[in-house]
Amino acid sequence: MKIYTKTGDKGETGLIGGRRVSKADLRIVAYGAVDELNSSIGLAVSSLCGKEKVFSDLADVLTQVQNDLFIVGSDLADSDYPKSQYNTPRTDENMASALEPVIDKFESELEPITFFILPGGSAEASMLHVCRGVARRAETAAVALYRSESINPAIIMYLNRLADLLFVAARLANKRQGVPDVAWKKKKSSQ
């Protein structure tokens, strides 16, 4: 089977169930952002796996997140929420709840935050901060869709919690490599 179908050549794509919509539809923007997030996390995992002894637990968590994001994406691609005849996997609140003890565990390794943190430090932390930014954009796109159509509210909860996890993961990547978080410095007044 060929990868190209030419069915999207006029700026439309199909949802689960066959309905055609514009590629600029809020639903497509939302699951496109989730797909980008999954790809970004894949890049971060590849980098973390190069330092397996330091980051194996974090890489395992993020690999599970990638699997979860497939569910989030398929949930968004099915416009028949809450009822669907297609057995589409659905995001559930337990997916977000499962991230909370992981966040707590990773955060227990960190010093409390006493300053605003700029994205940066080690290359691994920087990648995780990029992932966090993409997660926030995916969350924003899901919220925009939620305000115009019926979607599973657990999606928004999951993406919100995931952004929190990615922030803590970025700090953890710096900490485990002995790299300090980058502090925001207020510009001194010229007056």
Automatic annotation (TrEMBL):
| Recorded superkingdom | Archaea
Cobalamin adenosyltransferase-like domain location, by residue? 3-172
Record SUPFAM superfamilies: Cobalamin adenosyltransferase-like
Which Pfam families does the entry mention? Cob_adeno_trans
Q: Which InterPro entries match?
A: CblAdoTrfase-like, CblAdoTrfase-like_sf, PduO-typ
Q: Per UniProt, what is one GO molecular function of this protein?
A: corrinoid adenosyltransferase activity
Q: Does the keyword Secreted apply?
A: no
The Gene Ontology biological process annotation of the record reads: cobalamin metabolic process
The alphabetized UniProt keywords are: ATP-binding, Nucleotide-binding, Transferase
Protein family according to the UniProt entry: Belongs to the Cob(I)alamin adenosyltransferase family.
Identification of the protein by name:
ATP:cob(I)alamin adenosyltransferase
